[in-house]
Known about the structure:
The chain has one domain. The chain is 73% helix and 2% strand. It has helices at residues 2-13, 21-38, 55-74, 77-81, 85-103, 108-117, 119-129, 135-164, 169-172, 183-196, 205-212, 215-236, 241-247, 249-266, 272-292, 296-327, 338-341, 343-356, 363-378, 382-405, 421-436; strands at residues 45-48, 51-53. It has a two-stranded antiparallel ribbon. A hairpin with a 2-residue loop joins strand 1 and strand 2 (51-53). The chain is globular, with a radius of gyration of 21 Å. The model is unreliable at 443-448 (pLDDT under 50). Belongs to the complex I subunit 4 family.
Amino acid sequence: MLKFVLMLLFLVIGLFYKNMFWFFQNMLFIFFFFYMCMGYNSYFSNISYCFGLDLVSYGLVLLSLWICALMMMASESYIRQNNYVNLFMFLLFFLLLMLVLTFSSLSVIMFYLFFESSLIPTLFLILGWGYQPERLQAGIYLLFYTLLASLPLLIGVFYIYDYVGSLNFMLLMNSSLIGYNYIFLYFCLIGAFLVKMPMFLVHLWLPKAHVEAPVSGSMILAGVLLKLGGYGLLRMFSVLQILGVKLNYLWIGVSLVGGVLVSLVCLRQTDLKALIAYSSVAHMGIVLGGLMTLSLWGVSGAYTLMIAHGLCSSGLFCLANISYERMGSRSLLINKGMLNFMPSMSLWWFLLCSSNMAAPPTLNLLGEVSLINSLVGWSWVSMIMLSLLSFFSASYTLYLFAYSQHGKVYSGNFFFSTGVSREYLLLILHWLPLNLLILKSGPCMLWI
């Protein structure tokens, strides 16, 4: 495992040569290929010093590498504008290094350290390459929401060390906190992850950050950083299982009701990026609900949908950025009639929108079916909110597709545009894994 960390570290050091943008992007794809060929054996494997990986880590590290390579491909305009390209690449590679270290940490304290460190490059990406002056407010929202919730987590980690005598993930799996006197600790340990997912009620930082972030910032936020919350919960519930069985109904209720309310908010959006950002909150709501049931179906479905949402949401942000570069606006009132304007791109809008509403044969479908199965098995009452959530999820996706693709073109000077091959390659690299991974859906169930 250490060899990959060192490879990334040396790539970060070599970023200050000029005109190396595409070379480093290709290096990321090569790195992804090496990592994929390494594979995983059983349980934790490839352990070196304080790093190792199991199936959950392996999938999320692969997702991080893939999304970061596609981020570079989507940010080609920075080369044309000479927009601090080397600094941008440095932040991107530093963020990737932090993510790889987070997902492959074997100790809770190491995980906490890198989990918080991933916030810094994201903040700089938003502040440095964002589109509007409001990015400062978005950065402050992101910083304070995350940091305020993470301090109790640090205190909780220290308490676990005092209680168990170790912070190693494998040793923590054999110990569980029992009794209602640990309720405060339970809230401390999962609060930071609920904000990061984000759960409804602590989600306001996400739409702001997405709307103000550049395309690369939106891609990494939707693709990987939201998954840090789910990954943290998966790890922490090895200690909180018994308390979770008694208290998790609270989060399941909030996430399901919140998912429906956020879906209704989506139907009132006029900003492309805000609509896609709110749809992420709705999807993470059902992920959180399934995860909190602590069942095999729920945990497997949550993991599957996290991977699927990372690819699908990132692709939709790419499409929103392609429209923004042509029309100069993200408003749905201006971005309409795109079927006349960019007919070839409409196919990709259709394919990724259908993935977003979990149409077959996408990985989203497998994840949502598993999650619905787990939630209905947990309580029949959840069917009410689940049916509303599924219906409105399809509604706002159709609203996004219909409003952006149909109607008359807003611009009086009608002209025809096809898009460049780089953009089509970028979109196909989001869509293909999303539809091919469902063919190999078995191992998702085997990690427990």
